[in-house]
């Protein structure tokens, strides 16, 4: 019966609250149908380990001390599938869907520092499988493969030459330039993709810095920028470039998280962008370079638009800590040439908008610059997926406003009216997609 190794495959999902293992695929020594998996024939135990192999100790909100991050998981459903977890009527593979919870998360940490951790599973058969050959007593403890479908098209690399002794790593998404026919619709036409596509540069927050470049584009749902809803605004094809900062984008050489509004990473980051564009010059439209980022990356978005005022078609500054004491005339003059869209939330616990984004926005508007500001009263789930125990929308800490950016929920001006472009209401990504370096917005 056991002429093959009992191993499992994990499948991860990149969600609004970080990556998590959403299902486990088991190879069986028999063919099963969905009816053969009722009652559920497996239970799942997990331990989360640090990269050095030690068991992760975590202090939960309701605990007075750190406790081991381990326990049993509910299995939401089980079904026959192929080796990649896709449903089928009958198979020798079975997928176990898991809940999104702390024990299935693959990143641990805070908004200032995060790290990958490894959930290790033990899956035990608890009921006989009534397949083509009855099976009992299976125990799976070895992970054979880890799959993340949302990373299709993503790769990672390092800039070729250091600048100021800094050599940045980066992740990037390569768009599909082939024309695709849409699903049947009486009014939809085939979308013809551009020969040269826009480039979206996205800058991570403080928690995703360091030397694990995958965290820069998986720690938050940056991969939303490579998915159809946002790509469609860019004619179905947009490059995405996600550099990783070794420390913090706000590092000015004296303080890593200071208030100077300066950065030692400005020149190295521009060199990386230039290198990337040069490497793909036949497929990148130089008039459609969009830069954006969250928190620390929101600061760096503003910094780059100041240092290179004639380069970017537009900037998206999300909960950006760009402090008002250094928003002088030189800064305002440099920013005048680049359309900006600010996103922030009232009551932000880490970056006070009254000390950062709001005065900058008002000063830009006063001098006639092109700027928008979407201001949320609070941050709560607007997708309908996450709920509090009493059924209300799940409340999120107010600094996490990037969740609304990835879900394309930013559509209003500071006064609550709809953002308009060429007499049409637009959201933040449609606005960005329509920008060219000479566009008035």
Key words describing this protein structure:
5-stranded mixed beta sheet, 15% helix, 31% strand, 8 helices, 441 residues, 8-stranded mixed beta sheet, alpha/beta, globular
Strand and helix map with partners:
Blueprint: E1 7-15, E2 18-33, E3 42-49, E4 57-58, E5 67-68, E6 70-73, E7 77-81, E8 90-97, E9 107-109, E10 114-116, E11 118-125, E12 139-140, E13 142-147, E14 154-158, E15 169-173, E16 197-203, H1 213-218, H2 228-231, E17 238-244, H3 266-279, E18 284-294, H4 296-307, E19 314-318, H5 329-335, E20 340-345, H6 357-366, E21 371-376, E22 379-380, E23 395-396, H7 402-406, E24 420-421, E25 424-425, H8 428-434
Helix pairs in contact: 4-5
Poorly predicted parts:
none
The helix/strand class is: alpha/beta
Q: State the shape.
A: globular
Secondary structure: helix percent:
10-25%
Strand portion, in percent? 25-35%
Overall pLDDT level: 93
List the strand order in the largest sheet: 14-15-17-16-18-19-20-21
Q: If helices are DSSP runs of H or I spanning 4 or more residues, what is the number of helices?
A: 8
Termini Cα gap? 67 Å
Describe the protein's architecture and organization.
With 441 residues, the chain is α/β, with parallel strands linked by helices. Helix content is 15%, strand content 31%. The protein has an eight-stranded mixed beta sheet, with helices on both faces. It has a five-stranded mixed beta sheet with strand order 7-8-2-1-13, with no helix packed on it. A four-stranded antiparallel beta sheet has the order 6-3-11-12, with no helix packed on it. Helix 4 (296-307) crosses helix 5. The longest helix has 14 residues, at 266-279. The mean pLDDT is 93.
